[in-house]
Amino acid sequence: MRPVFEWNLGSRSVQLGKRTLIMGVVNVTPDSFSDGGLYYDRDRAVERGLQLLDDGADIIDVGGESTRPGARVVSDEGGDSSPDARDEPRHPVSEAEELKRVVPVIQSLKKARSDAIVSVDTYKSTVARAAVEAGAEIVNDVSGLRWDRQMRRTLGALNCGVVLMHMRGRPEEWRNLPPVEDVVILVKRELRDWASAARLEGVRQERLVLDPGFGFGKNFQENYPLLKRFHEFADLRYPLLAGVSRKSFLGRALARNGKDAPVADRLFATIAMETALIHKGAHIIRTHDVRATADARTVADIAAS
């Protein structure tokens, strides 16, 4: 049985553990690997978010910048993982552009569904603050609150939920990262350290959810130990989120004739892995294919109860 938590989102709390929650992905980007920029237009993004809610999403995660392998990111220290990277690095998205992309979508979603739980996928503190002011109740930071030195302090002052994700290195470095001897031990240690650093800046424990970051700086072979030993992350005593939807290590596992399976052919593998993660203790599943995941979740939760 999963441990049960009350996730403090500020104005309300959400129970985690008795029922798996689904976080549906809305990429307001022109270059997402998963949807090819289909929801770059605000109205389409809002329509997509509302459809995902109707399909069974408990949370809508709105992101305005893709962090795919090979990409350069804005970082004052130096969302959606994009497994199908192009070889050329893209230009990082400015704060102004990211705000222009995500804030109107968040405002429109909240206007249409005032009770909807909206998350913003960003590593920039200014975007996080503006998104929360616009109605977002969760900040989902793929950098583990590390790329923007102001993020921990900003979130300490904001009254919202926080997803702290593990990422090894930066996207432009992923192709050349050396393997690690035990990826589970590494991820557990660094998540524990980063969560402690967040708490020192005022982010209370009951506001934090941890994500081991499948595909983010992990090579093909390193993702499967994360699945096999996912239950070990319960030792950290935080709720757990997992996002494996359509990722490249699934495409590699399904390779035929020397070619990885394209994104469109990864649904069944995604559902298989998401179901396994629910049985191994995931409290929240982040996914693109909400309806299929919601059906799988219903059965997996019954079986796990």
Describe the structure.
- 36% of the residues lie in helices and 15% in strands.
- It is built from 9 helices and 10 strands.
- The model is unreliable at 73-90 (pLDDT under 50).
- The protein has one domain: TIM Barrel, CATH 3.20.20.
- Helix 1 packs across helix 2 and helix 2 (95-112) runs parallel beside helix 3 (125-134).
- An 8-stranded parallel sheet has the order 8-7-6-5-4-3-10-9. It has a two-stranded antiparallel sheet with strand order 1-2.
- The chain has 305 residues and is of the alpha/beta class.
- It has helices at 42-55, 95-112, 125-134, 151-157, 183-200, 220-228, 248-253, 267-279, 290-304, and strands at residues 5-8, 13-16, 21-27, 59-63, 117-121, 138-141, 161-165, 208-211, 241-243, 284-287.
Using brief descriptors, characterize the structure shown:
10 strands; eight-stranded parallel sheet; 9 helices; two-stranded antiparallel ribbon; TIM Barrel; alpha/beta; 305 residues; 36% helix
Give the secondary structure arrangement, pairings included:
Layout: E1 5-8, E2 13-16, E3 21-27, H1 42-55, E4 59-63, H2 95-112, E5 117-121, H3 125-134, E6 138-141, H4 151-157, E7 161-165, H5 183-200, E8 208-211, H6 220-228, E9 241-243, H7 248-253, H8 267-279, E10 284-287, H9 290-304
Parallel strand pairs: 3-4, 3-10, 4-5, 5-6, 6-7, 7-8, 9-10
Antiparallel strand pairs: 1-2
Task: List the total number of helices.
Answer: 9
Find the count of extended strands (DSSP E, 2+ residues): 10
What is the N-to-C order of secondary-structure elements (H for helix, E for strand)? Answer: EEEHEHEHEHEHEHEHHEH
CATH top level label: Alpha Beta
Regions with little confidence, pLDDT below 50 for 5+ residues: 73-90
What integer is the average pLDDT? 90
How many domains make up the coordinates?
Answer: 1
| Main beta-sheet strand count, sense and barrel state | 8 strands, parallel
What structural category do the secondary elements indicate?
alpha/beta
Helix content: 25-40%
What is the CATH architecture term?
Alpha-Beta Barrel
Round the Cα radius of gyration to an integer and report it: 17 Å
- Classify the fold: give the CATH topology: TIM Barrel
Q: Strand order of the main beta sheet, please? A: 8-7-6-5-4-3-10-9
N-C termini distance: 7 Å
Kindly estimate the percentage of residues that lie in beta strands according to DSSP.
5-15%
Any idea what the shape is? Answer: globular
**For the record, what is the CATH homologous superfamily label?**
Dihydropteroate synthase-like
